[in-house]
């Protein structure tokens, strides 16, 4: 699995996260090409410190020219949303530049509710906390981009059966 090392490290550091986006679609049975890895995090300071520790240990760096630690500050994230219309904060692996991790700057849905309704997928000994189909559909509706509308239609077709 492309991001197996990342998920193993997030699990090892006890990061509370949910896989969302294209990888979530694939794990829910939708055939779709995706390169980046989208996650939704518990945005508490304690969890973000764990997350940044995991990213640092794997060599990931912010894609934008800021210190990774700035992501912890909720005021800084609010400023990015307000002034730059930022939706996700991207981390890139300089050794493998195709590996990009996108993290919501503000969670578009309630993390606690989504975490409680998550689906855990097992791939060998790796446990993957996956956003539920219902929450994934909701995220796709909120985004509203053409790719998300197509993803939503595919989700509905597969899960109607």
Description:
Strand 6 and strand 7 form a beta hairpin. 45% of the residues lie in helices and 19% in strands. Strands 1-2-5-4-3 form a five-stranded mixed β-sheet. A two-stranded antiparallel sheet has the order 6-7. It has a single domain, classed as Beta Polymerase, domain 2 (2-Layer Sandwich). The radius of gyration is 15 Å and the shape is globular. The chain has 161 residues and is α+β, with helices and mostly antiparallel strands.
Strand order of the largest sheet: 1-2-5-4-3
Q: Helical amount among residues, as a percent range? A: 40-55%
Number of strands: 7
Shape assignment:
globular
Number of domains: 1
List keywords for this structure.
alpha+beta, 5-stranded mixed sheet, two-stranded antiparallel ribbon, 45% helix
Summarize the structure.
The protein has about 160 residues and is α+β, with helices and mostly antiparallel strands.
How do the helices and strands line up, and which of them pair or pack?
Layout: H1 4-12, E1 17-20, H2 21-27, E2 37-41, H3 45-57, E3 61-62, H4 74-84, E4 88-92, E5 100-104, H5 111-116, E6 119-123, E7 126-130, H6 133-143, H7 146-160
Parallel strand pairs: 2-5
Antiparallel strand pairs: 1-2, 3-4, 4-5, 6-7
Helix pairs in contact: 1-3, 6-7
